[in-house]
Amino acid sequence: MKKIAISMLRSVSCALALLGAGPVAALDVNREDVQHFTQEMLRKHKFDEAWLAGVIAGAQSQPRIIELMSRPAEQVLPWHAYRDHFLTNERIAAGVAFWIAHRARLAEIEQSTGVARHVIVGILGVETFFGRITGRFRVVDALATLAFDYPPRSKYFRDELEQFLLLVREDQVDVRTALGSYAGAMGSPQFMPRSYRAFAVDGDGDSRRDLWGSWDDVIASVANYLAKHGWHDGEPVAAPASLWFPRADSLVAGGLAPDTTVKSLRDRGLSFETGLGDKAPAFFIRIAGDQGPELRVGFHNCGVITKYNRSVMYALAVHELGSRIEALLPPAT
Fold first, then answer.
1. Which residues contact residue 232 at a Cβ distance below 8 angstroms, ignoring those fewer than 6 apart?
2. Is 74 left (phi over 0), alpha (psi -120 to 50) or beta?
3. 175 in a domain, yes or no?
4. What is the pTM of this model?
5. Which of 44, 218, 241, 305 lies at a CB distance of 3.0 to 4.6 Å from 295, suitable for a disulfide?
6. Known catalytic residues?
């Protein structure tokens, strides 16, 4: 089996090389790590050898992807700059239009999952501007490039490439044309392959999970992701806060999820409004506003949103974008 598979890989690779690869290069299928991955996929998942050989040999290693992954981390934006990037008039208007277009479906999903509509809409607005910015790299190229030519995270991306190949087989995704981000995130909600397989659902009843072409699937899948990560129906995300005495040395910001309780924060000098009880999970948030530090209290559902993206500013941007959109909705007719 091994000799046949490697022979197929080499044949397809040579054919691609003769056609010309342009500024990118076909994956070197003679490399030991590529051959080992291929054999693992055949052994573990019983892929068709000819199909798998064609997919692996057809993947192209793109220097641009490595450049994007390897560039020095940009300076961390302060909250007011981060917020202003997402909470623009254009994005809010697009969100209102999106909500109106999908009002019934959003209401149904909130009813069935408990996940707040404004958070679903906020995530789609922050992630891809409601489907406008979903990525221009072939997913197979992005994952193969990072799996074999980006040593710092090769293990992670080989696992994701494995998950993508399984997804392609299970959901009839076109491996040649599926596009995503330079890291391999897919569709309007930007799911990585493992998350796609684990949390994407068929929202429109056509027996497929399509995060590129079906908004019903997208909406249901975002809600399912949050529900599976522990969303609490009817609970708030965050609340503005202030200190009712000048010093509160025991308040420490920086966490991604609740590490204390509503009562504990109040006992340490933080003032905020919530209908949650004293024992409800909570955590202290300090962010850089236009006029200086701004204080927030994050609750359980704020921590759930950070499961989608490990950033408190992300969770706050999602919450505030969705809330502003909801506030501008015209009455339902």
1. 114, 300, 301, 304
2. beta
3. no
4. 0.90
5. 241
6. 127
